[in-house]
Amino acid sequence: MIDLNTIYNEDCLNTIAKMDNDFLDLTVTSPPYNVDLGNNKFNKNPYDLYIDNKDHQDYINWLKEIFYNIYLKTKSSGRICINIGDGKNGGVPSHSDVIQLMKDLKWIPITTIIWDKNNVSNRTAWGSFMSPSCPSFPTPFEYLLVFAKDNKKLQYKGETDLIKDDFVKWSLAKWSFTGESLKKIGHPAPFPLELPIRCIKMFSWINSIIYDPFSGSGTTALACKLNNRNFIGSEISQEYYNLSLNRLNSQNELF
């Protein structure tokens, strides 16, 4: 059995095993990007437990096992949204490998959204500056990969909370909003609340069950709580689990 509106302090495979098949409406998540967080020049803040430097194929196989199990627990026509960035300034095309592994698992591609993070100021990484020898191409964007199980069209009805202006804006496959502050949230790789809010409104009905297997600071759960969805999260870190509970509890005055 599994409880709704709960974040579990455990490996996501343990949480997923508690679910019935055909249970989830939507998964919204951002797995670790495998970019050696804490040791790369762009982010010196490591995860407290997870080692973000797997062999690339081991990393892809790890994700494949998780997304296979999520597939089993997802309703027919349910969706999954995966926020992912490439490593080494695009030299490690993780998003392409994730698309392929999802297709291997029979997930149906719906779209690939480019998230423009609006962070091109103070650029310092040029590679071979003013030379074609070996120029560098920092990526001020990430990907949001969206897939469905069995059918792109939802095969069950519900109530939406989308408004016209948001739908028109969000239905373009380029989203522009800034990333989240690491210092403000207290997690080395948070995504902004705007991202899961858009996902849950565009891809699920009100009162749907939303899962995040890499819950981190609880942003997906918070987006669900603010927008009339049921959430389930998994987070292996005790520190980030406590952080996410504090964030959720601090929002009680909004309800």
What is the CATH C-level name? Alpha Beta
The SS-based structural class is alpha/beta
* Average pLDDT reading: 87
CATH architecture: 3-Layer(aba) Sandwich
- The largest beta-sheet arranges its strands as 1-8-7-2-3-5-4-6
Gross morphology: globular
| Domain module count | 1
Looking at this structure, what is the CATH superfamily? Vaccinia Virus protein VP39
Compute the separation of the termini in Å.
27 Å
Describe the model.
With 255 residues, the protein is an alpha/beta fold. The chain has a single domain, classed as Vaccinia Virus protein VP39 (Rossmann fold, 3-Layer(aba) Sandwich). Helices cover 30% and strands 20% of the residues. It has eight helices and eight strands. An eight-stranded mixed β-sheet has the order 1-8-7-2-3-5-4-6, with helices on both faces. α7 links the parallel β7 and β8. α2 packs across α3 and α6 packs across α7. The longest helix is centred in the first third of the chain and has 18 residues. It is globular and about 60 Å long.
